[in-house]
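Section 3.1: Structural characterization of target chains.
Under the original work plan, the team committed to producing a structural model for every single-chain target entering the pipeline before any wet-lab resources were allocated. The record below documents one such target. The sequence was received from the expression subgroup and is listed exactly as submitted; it comprises 194 residues.
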Amino acid sequence: MKEYLEEIINPPWKQVRFWITAVFVLLLAIYLIYFKFILIDRDLTAEELKSSVEFFNISSQWIEKEKIEDEDFKGIVMVPQISFQIRNNSEKKMKNIYILGVFRKLYVGKAMGEGFEIVMKKPVLPGNVSEKIIINSAFGYRATSKENFKSGSVEWGKSVVELYIKSRRSKLFFIKSFYIRQIIEGMAKDVLIK
């Protein structure tokens, strides 16, 4: 009867049993968080990422990024674009991957623009493939129309995109280069540069 009255009179936070239970629950929560994020959900290292990424379904083209309606210029901005999927060839799931594309004119080396994508927020399991990843250059070239852009081939000549990749645990590193096809979105044939 005395113990029952003590529980009613003293609030729970003043009892030893409450604090033992609270400390136990807190320690259990810390252990579960550590186990989940440190031991189970470890991201790939740079070496693992480099050996496990396989690119496929690669496509590139030039697209119309925006229309310009200024007093001194009316037209469009054309930028290079690359799209691809990634296959996870590792034994760990792949997630939180950051991909940077640096678009350059071939033989010049100067960057014409960059684009980036944070991909695979939904993990890609071993052996599976990512959704389609699309990277556009942030900058491009002006033209009054797609047809005029096509004829001004000196501006948009042969170009490449250098892809850099990183996970949460790795630094950003170069992984692969791809040529940008000389195709304009919505136009049927490749443009031949002379």
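The chain has a mean pLDDT of 79.
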